[in-house]
Write a structure and sequence with these properties.
Helix content of chain B: over 70%
Mean pLDDT of chain B: 82
Largest sheet of chain A: 6 strands, mixed
Strand order of the largest sheet of chain A: 6-9-10-3-11-12
Helix content of chain A: 25-40%
Oligomer: heterodimer
Radius of gyration of chain B: 20 Å
Number of strands of chain A: 24
Number of helices of chain A: 17
Distance between the termini of chain B: 41 Å
Radius of gyration of chain A: 24 Å
Low-confidence stretches of chain B: 1-41
Structural class of chain A: alpha/beta
Strand content of chain B: under 5%
Distance between the termini of chain A: 46 Å
Shape of chain B: globular
Strand order of the largest sheet of chain B: 1-2
């Protein structure tokens, strides 16, 4: 397929029940150029991508390919035009091999109706070589890392001869080396004449890899420009719609040694978490740093009862607790805000209200001994939290399904905020959240700690650990290997510790 | 009773293609919320109304049609009461089934349980000379036990509910046949037992009262109680529910217990009403019960199983069944229409889900 000159979305309007996702948005991406698409959660980026992918249809407006209107009634039409997508949540088939995924839907090479595996693998190998990806095409996809799986999806687009690549938060959960590799690949594709849309909340990456930027706000495009001609404060101003850039956050000042809230001794899940010792004091924000796969989420899941440890002790406020389920964890005063909101955090079919009150139903009874919820009080409580977290909804009765990713994440946070738990575990709470939203999450954690609670904060973005934590422990290969406190916490130190062997 | 079985097997639908299909037309082509994209806004609202109340409209239309065609016999109080009485056992089992389906589990064992309940009660009273009250209590206990077994194997041991309960249904039929030697029993059933279903209260059959009370209990449980909220959460996202402190396994087990008890009640009512026992009387309820619940998921809250919807589904099937009987249709027509309505029900309810 020959390279395209230009894909334009013109005056696009798209509404969902209770939400105007796009309100006359204009976006243009050109062949041989990388466009950074920026905006807060709910600004309409995801909807725009779904539109290009043929997943949703616009209420008004048109799509133009090299000046001619096109219709994308279904995803197949998008593929036929040479559009390829790498979604934030991986949309591949884990039980097939790399080669089978790369060739998926493109027509496997066959003889007499049977797939010629060797040729299929050779095709995949050729495409992967273009991406400098050292991945054996015969490997089942499930065995690959997230970074490798993203590369496989790009390879799938290449194999389909795609002319437009759209990448939605492609560097989430990737290490710096992996990000550098991805950027190299994207530049190569661009130089081959491919048009690329790069959606990211990480401004440093946007400056590193894009040629042009478009900023969206409240469903409209508010800024277009060459990346080289803008600076970070200007972009932030456009993204947030407020003057003045977000100031660098001061470090959290360590409180005087508070009471010990949580002590973990020798917690072990063989092969995943080995002999973990941990201590958390009242008023403390404790960070857990580490690479993806180091066992951070697994460790906190053991502490909260989401998974069961093989051995080890958990002591809460001085008394040992047997925690074998999330419910046990809650009763011991430990709550978990899980990593993946779609699969673990929210009931998407539920309204915002029902999601928020789910862990605390007993508080909303018509009468104490009567397990019948009082919906009016639920609505009031949910409404308060929605306001406090600035969740963008018209009404708490709106289903969580249609909310933007960041707003869904906030709904999950809201579930736990009114809890009287002692220990709050935040697992990647800022994943996929915009700049302002991140600040709000940091404030929330600080607020909880200031109230005398303990916070455990897992993050892959070490800069946010530096500014929010009193103490950071580093996890490597299932073990807690190093600890930093106060001024000793720095991005460089954490990175060095994560990578040393 | 045999009349009832053929009758529920009729459960068919004149409305299979026309009315019901009409309700879901819009959302049908709408995997991504796309119906909203075409046409003026008024059409949108109409589509939403059709998706939500289409089945109800179809139900009322069916009543109207039968009333017009058989104006002297159909639209009478007597006939209404007979339809309600006939529908009562279906309602009890369908409402119970709604509870497990809400949590995305299946129970296919209730057919066997209905048969076992009737068989065991008869055997206890006729062969062993038990007091009927004792037989009733023990049979209800059996329902609980079977529910606990199902729930334990499915929720706690992780068995696939479809296969486990299908197998359990076969086991229960085996136990039933072992207790009764597969012999039909006409004599020796105590009058007090017969009175359970045949008696009347305030001019209405006891069966209607029992069904109404059980439906109300399940409605409160699912729609108004914490447990119901938790059950819908489990159906929506079991892991999120678990991490929110919901006792997922326990509630899933409870769902199977509800079905077990409902099936035991139905088994008792069927043998009580006919004052006789015929082997394997429950299997014929499998299809109609599922049909009613899936039809119900196409009304009020499209795409979601709900008690009020189930009630409409049961009444719809009951009206169709009685109406078709009055029209003197042949058995093969009845079979075609019965299968047709279940397929339609499933599709319409899928459309509702896709629409969300």
């Amino acid at each position: 397929m020959r390279a395209l000159e230009r894909v334009e979305a013109r005056a696009i309007v798209k509404t969902y029940p209770g939400v105007v996702a796009l309100d006359g948005a204009n976006v243009t991406v050109e062949g041989g150029s990388i466009l950074g698409l920026l905006g807060k959660n709910g600004a309409g980026k995801s909807t725009l991508i779904k539109l290009l992918a043929g997943v949703v249809a616009p209420d008004a407006g048109e799509l133009l390919l090299d000046g001619a209107p096109i219709a994308l009634p279904d995803p197949h039409a998008a593929t036929a035009h040479g559009f390829a997508f790498v979604h934030q949540e991986l949309a591949d088939v884990p039980n097939l091999t790399v080669a089978e995924n790369v060739g998926l839907g493109l027509g496997y090479p066959t003889r007499g109706g049977l797939v010629r595996r060797r040729e299929l693998r050779a095709q995949a190998r050729a495409v992967l070589a273009r991406l400098e990806a050292e991945i054996d095409p015969a490997t089942p996809l499930a065995q690959l890392s997230i970074a490798q799986r993203r590369l496989v999806m790009i390879a799938h687009g290449l194999a389909a001869d795609a002319r437009l690549f759209v990448l939605d938060e492609p560097t989430a959960s990737l290490t710096d080396d992996e990000i550098a590799h991805l950027h190299r690949v994207l530049r190569t594709l661009r130089d081959d004449g491919v048009a690329i849309v790069y959606v990211s909340h990480r401004l440093d990456e946007v400056f590193a890899v894009t040629d042009r930027v478009t900023v969206m706000r409240d469903g409209r495009d508010v800024f277009h420009g060459a990346t080289a001609e803008v600076d970070k404060p200007r972009l932030i101003e456009q993204i947030t719609g407020t003057r003045g850039a977000v100031e660098a956050r001061p470090r959290r000042v360590a409180p005087a040694g508070g009471e010990e809230l949580l002590r973990v001794e020798g917690l072990t899940l063989p092969g995943i978490v080995e002999d973990a010792d941990l201590q958390l004091r009242a008023g403390e924000v404790l960070g857990i740093a580490g690479l993806v796969g180091a066992g951070r989420s697994e460790l906190v899941r053991l502490i909260c009862g989401a998974d069961r440890a093989a051995s080890g002790r958990i002591v809460v406020r001085g008394s040992e607790r047997r925690i074998r389920s999330p419910r046990d964890g809650m009763e011991a005063g430990i709550v978990l805000l899980p990593e993946d909101r779609k699969t673990q955090g929210a009931v998407l079919g539920f309204s915002v209200r029902k999601n928020i009150t789910l862990p605390a139903m007993a508080r909303f009874r018509l009468a104490k001994p009567l397990p019948l919820p009082n919906q009016r009080r639920e609505r009031a409580a949910a409404g308060e939290l929605v306001a406090r977290l600035k969740i963008k909804v018209a009404d708490v009765e709106q289903p969580a399904l249609h909310l933007s990713g960041g707003n869904q994440q906030k709904v999950v946070l809201a579930k736990w905020l009114d809890s009287d738990a002692d220990v709050f575990v935040f697992d990647e709470p800022t994943h996929g959240i915009d700049v302002e939203g991140k600040e709000e999450v940091y404030d929330l954690m600080a607020e909880l700690a200031d109230q005398g609670r303990g916070v455990i904060f897992i993050s892959s973005e070490f800069t946010e650990l530096v500014s929010t934590c009193n103490r950071v422990v580093v996890m490597r290969d299932g073990r807690l290997v190093e600890e930093f406190e106060g001024e000793a916490i720095s991005d460089a130190a954490l990175v060095a510790s994560c990578y040393s062997h | 009773m045999s009349e009832h079985l053929t009758a529920s097997a009729q459960n068919a639908a004149v409305g299979g293609s026309t009315q019901v299909g009409g309700t879901g037309e819009q959302p049908a082509r709408d995997p991504g919320g796309r119906a909203a994209a075409v046409g003026p806004p008024g059409r949108n609202a109409a589509a939403a109304f059709a998706a939500r109340y289409g089945l109800l409209v179809a139900f009322l239309a069916t009543v109207a049609v039968f009333s017009a065609v058989r104006s002297s016999t159909f639209p009478t109080w007597r006939n209404a009461e007979s339809i309600l009485t006939l529908a009562a056992p279906s309602l009890i089992i369908a409402v119970g089934l709604t509870v497990v389906l809400v949590m995305q589990d299946f129970d296919l064992s209730f057919g066997g349980m209905i048969g076992l309940a009737g068989g065991a009660a008869t055997a206890f009273m006729v062969n062993d000379g038990w007091a009927w009250q004792l037989a009733v209590v023990v049979v209800l206990g059996l329902g609980v036990l079977v529910g606990v077994l199902n729930g334990f194997m499915v929720a706690y041991l992780g068995g696939n509910s479809f296969i486990i309960t299908l197998a359990m249904g076969t086991v229960l039929a085996g136990v039933e046949f072992g207790l009764t030697d597969q012999a039909t029993v006409y004599d020796g059933i105590p009058a007090g037992y017969v009175e359970i279903a045949s008696g009347e209260l305030l001019g209405l059959s006891n069966q209607i009262w029992i069904a109404a009370v059980l439906a109300l209990v399940v409605w409160v449980l699912l729609e108004r109680s914490e447990i119901g909220r938790f059950m819908y959460a489990i159906g929506g996202n079991p892991e999120a529910a678990r991490l929110s402190g919901v006792r997922v396994l326990r509630l899933r087990l409870l769902g199977f217990v509800v079905v077990g008890v409902a099936a035991a009640v139905v088994g008792i009512l069927l043998t009580s009403q006919s004052a006789s026992y015929a082997p394997n009387g429950g299997t014929a309820y499998l299809l109609p019960a599922f049909a009613a619940v899936f039809l119900g998921a196409a009304v009020f809250r499209p795409g979601e199983f709900n008690v009020l919807g189930t009630i409409v589904g049961v009444l719809f099937l009951g009206v169709i069944q009685t109406g078709l009987t009055m029209l003197d249709l042949e058995t093969w027509v009845i079979n075609l229409v019965q299968g047709g309505i279940l397929i339609t029900a499933v599709l319409v309810s899928r459309m509702g889900m896709a629409r969300r």
